[in-house]
Amino acid sequence: MRLRTSLVAAGIATALVLTGCAGGSGDDDSSTETTGTAALTIAKPDGAITTESNNPYLGDSSASKYAYGKAIFEPLALVNPTGDLGTTPWLAESVTWNDDYTQLTAVARSGVKWSDGEDFTADDIAFSFTQVLDGKINDTNAFDLKGVTVDGDTVTIDFNSSKYTQQARVLHYPIVPEHIWADIADPNTDPLTGEGQAVGTGPYVLDSWTTESVTLTANPDYWGGDLAVPELHYVSYGDNAALTTALATGEADWAQAFIPQIQDSYLSADPDNKFLASPTAGAGTLFMNLQTKPFNDPALRQALAWTIDRQAYVDIAREGASEAVWSVTGLGTLLQDEVLPEYADQNYSVDVDMAREVLTDAGYTWEDEKLVDPDGEAVTFSISVPAGWSDWNTEQALIAEELKEGLGIDVKVDQPDWGGWDAARQEGTFQAIIHWLEDTGNAYGLYTSAMDPKWIVDDKAQFNFGRFDDPAVTEALNTYANASSEADREAALAVMQKAFVENVPVIPLGAHPLLGEFNTRNYVGWPSEEDPYASADPTQPAVVQILTELQPAE
């Protein structure tokens, strides 16, 4: 992850500097005004909002599930998962890590008030993290805190282990007011629905909650300056089809969803309808079970890597909402600066002749156009993706066709329900699956997901589903995550990357994007391919940044 400041105005008068203090509109006493008149309706396809819970720390709360909590409760800083992968200080005027990322120093932004009028201070930051340190809030983010101290406006947070690969988790942690939360007996369960409890520093405040819609109104004293949008309506539809209709007709304005045939079903309905797919450091990836045939042979895996068409994955399965990953290192374009020089120009392509040469050299043959392994057995396997995951279901069919035509491999397309698929991936009873990666904003995400034994606990895997295990690679992964110098981290990267290239433990297909559908009828200033200051996904922490960037359309 690049720890450089994103020079995005974000509605703040002065550009924010990562390791230095910078003034913003929160440094004066001017009140926030709204300059637009139209509300924004933000939608999800997750069914009815049945139970109110405004607690930002609960993953199943309505505030988290429908994401309106992110417009109320703000974090210390925003880490861009796309674009320059940079960090923009937010509730902190500056955030600084020590050399080994075991200590974070944050300077509380001055001039910020909670939505109930109380002053925001460094003590609120310290309190938010101390709740985890003291065990009052479950450490679901694996912060592994050591201590929290306050000196004036400066908060120092110490960790027992390096947070280099978890920077976003730390910096995106919601900050809450001590004067309210100190009286909450159990913040792990409290729905935060009491009068005056849903108090944040964010650009919007909770106005009303019903099972049909949650309404937020602009915070009149927001530290980040004027807000163009006076009101946000959060609505949930029964499925993607209903959501698509709402977007196309203008009933909904902003959403995050994969929409099949998006050009015909959404974009063509109105020239103001827009769609942005923002690539991230993660990727849709083919995981193979390395413990059983045929994937226990690196030659077979390499041959597949020379045969599978990543551009078809992007163009057909993802309908353009991705970016092909061709580098032999498995890293996409956002992480090009972590590709070692010796691999800088080494890319896979669709080269069936190369794939067949690799297989021939490894002792494979063909009988009646079917691939036969060195043991004399026909090569066949199944590839599994849950039914209804339409993009990856399409990719299953594409891979089956490509491997049958190119290499003579019979691939069975398996589409179980979620439960069966989940059990198989954890227990290692699958042959091949398509899955996402742990996205850490750097090369570690791919390599830990593909090769790290730490993910296998009690013989069940959360990543590294193929169960790759090489002590030298494991040591390198640990070094990369915990290094106190760039030299040590680069040396560890060399070990991991070489092992990945030589062993092909997984095959990344295309960058896993963050999606956003929105319209420019009433407001402009949205993220774009030309200005990727954030993704356009309204469920991400940077929703606060986008809301301060929006301006009325001419």
Automatic annotation (TrEMBL):
<keyword id="KW-0732">Signal</keyword>
<dbReference type="GO" id="GO:1904680">
    <property type="term" value="F:peptide transmembrane transporter activity"/>
</dbReference>
<feature type="domain" description="Solute-binding protein family 5">
    <location>
        <begin position="88"/>
        <end position="448"/>
    </location>
</feature>
<dbReference type="InterPro" id="IPR039424">
    <property type="entry name" value="SBP_5"/>
</dbReference>
<dbReference type="GO" id="GO:0043190">
    <property type="term" value="C:ATP-binding cassette (ABC) transporter complex"/>
</dbReference>
<dbReference type="InterPro" id="IPR030678">
    <property type="entry name" value="Peptide/Ni-bd"/>
</dbReference>
<dbReference type="InterPro" id="IPR000914">
    <property type="entry name" value="SBP_5_dom"/>
</dbReference>
<dbReference type="GO" id="GO:0042597">
    <property type="term" value="C:periplasmic space"/>
</dbReference>
<protein>
    <submittedName>
        <fullName>Oligopeptide-binding protein OppA</fullName>
    </submittedName>
</protein>
<dbReference type="Pfam" id="PF00496">
    <property type="entry name" value="SBP_bac_5"/>
</dbReference>
<dbReference type="GO" id="GO:0015833">
    <property type="term" value="P:peptide transport"/>
</dbReference>
<feature type="signal peptide">
    <location>
        <begin position="1"/>
        <end position="22"/>
    </location>
</feature>
